[in-house]
Protein: Cell division ATP-binding protein FtsE
Organism: Rhizobium deserti
Amino acid sequence: MVAFEAVTKRFGRAADEAQFTALDGVGLSVSRGAITGIIGRSGAGKSTLIRLVNGLEKATSGNVLVDGVEVGGLSETGLRDLRRQVGMIFQHFNLLSSRTAFDNVALPLEIAGLSREAIRQKVAPLLDLVGLGDKADRYPAELSGGQKQRVGIARALATSPKLLLSDEATSALDPETTHSILELLKRINAELGLTVLLITHEMEVVKTIATDVAVIDRGRIVEAGRTFDVFTLPKHETTRALLSSSLGVKLPEWVRSGLQPQPLPGGRVMVRLIFFGATAFQPLTARLVSEIGTGVNIMAGTIDEIAGEPFGSLVVSYSSDTAVIQRAEQFYTETGLTREVLGYVA
Ligand SMILES: Nc1ncnc2c1ncn2[C@@H]1O[C@H](COP(=O)(O)OP(=O)(O)OP(=O)(O)O)[C@@H](O)[C@H]1O
């Protein structure tokens, strides 16, 4: 649906030494019908990336394709057509305060030249869809943050787009409202078959709704794939750092700071056990303890859900004695339990 091919974006004049590279050779493909999350820290290049999709920014080099059409090569008319097919929602909603909820949703249809009657027929069901059928005549100032975002979503859907871009759409909302907006986006994706591309700095958002994820760091995509795969076995340091606070696998600082890359004589190994699929429902921890003996310490743990799939993570430590490690490894092989050695401690 959307493809980024070796996309680089620099700000500033080419001759200028102070030119800044916001995106550096980005390659990424967004599948039709998926909810894809792009996550990264502040300044990583997320907004720039998403703004290239509807032509608000132009790539310095490389191609951005929407449904096979190169956005950078579009004329003004072409861009106007594209923006009808690509809806967008924003962190601060961007509603017109002088217009009611109804008239905000109607705006893109007025611009497209629809009759008042055609607009009414389109807007009323959209307000129902987002749960605001009874708030049509309210002004933004009379609506809560969550309700304003619902108006924003209805407005983005007014032109029946095939792609919805979400720019930190829940970042200004409390956790409960965030959850209800994410549920709404999930429903729209399922019922309307709309492809969703969202950018966020919140792992929780990606974890809740994104089927696919790309992690961006200093203008580069450092990791991408199915959310479940990337989050259960993150490969890149940035992904791990972003995940550590979200998935409850953050090690206490006194443990983390003492971790060594090699075993220490008479010391212990620190291992993260990952439970998913068949292993999520088996009493494997008890079996591990009986395999290795009572010297197993539980350091941190969580049971969670990623993109609708159960996922558990347990950080344990036990003796780094060769015989003990061999017994543990054999146990992991037999049970199919995924484990990751975090390091060694004294
Ligand atoms: N018009 C511009 N001119 C110069 N530099 C820019 C411009 N727009 C963005 N940048 C720079 O590009 C980098 C990426 O910005 P971008 O807004 O894409 O990041 P982001 O990941 O969305 O961050 P945030 O979450 O804080 O919005 C930043 O260092 C920013 O200062």
